[in-house]
């Protein structure tokens, strides 16, 4: 999500970019979920790569989104989310040497923080693009999932990458709903 400040214009170009951005985020998450389930019994190096790619992609996506929508200064929640995702990527790399419980704990902190930032971004973006309720709900759900990951990371059972995959699947769902919602809104606006 891009954070826009003030009263951003509701231009078709910006809306088109946002739709494409949401579709790209959904597609990435769908592919990642498929890989997580499909390669779950594979080598740890492959699982580690998937666990590192997910927050790294989020950092890149947030950075590009912020830059596309006025820059990092105008989009503080996106800027902070970029930093949080970069730190998470490094923290996952460190946690991998400690075990999957530690990795799940890192994902928990990340999901909770990025969920709060996504919520704030959705609220701010509503002013410029409207109908950001899927992103707001996604932020709330992400925060809740983060808390659950933190609780589960302290359990004696060793979690697997498939514990994180449903979280990514819900993210894909919300990005897809947002993209479709903007597509329908744009079509209605053109038909007026």
Structural class by helix and strand composition: mainly alpha
Can you tell me the residue ranges where pLDDT is under 50 for at least 5 consecutive residues? 1-10
Number of helices: 6
Strand content: under 5%
Overall average residue pLDDT: 90
Helical percent range? over 70%
- Could you tell me the radius of gyration in angstroms? 17 Å
Q: Describe the biggest sheet?
A: none
C-alpha termini separation: 27 Å
Query: SSE order, as H and E?
Result: HHHHHH
Task: State the shape.
Answer: globular
Give the total of domains.
1
What is the total tally of β strands? 0
What does it look like?
This protein is mainly α. Helix content is 78%, strand content 0%. It has helices at 12-38, 44-68, 76-96, 100-129, 133-153, 165-190. The protein is globular and about 55 Å long. Mean pLDDT is 90; it is low at 1-10.
Short description:
With 192 residues, the protein is mainly alpha-helical. The protein contains six helices and no strands.
Characteristics:
192 residues; mainly alpha; 78% helix; single chain; disordered N terminus
Give me the secondary-structure topology.
Elements: H1 12-38, H2 44-68, H3 76-96, H4 100-129, H5 133-153, H6 165-190
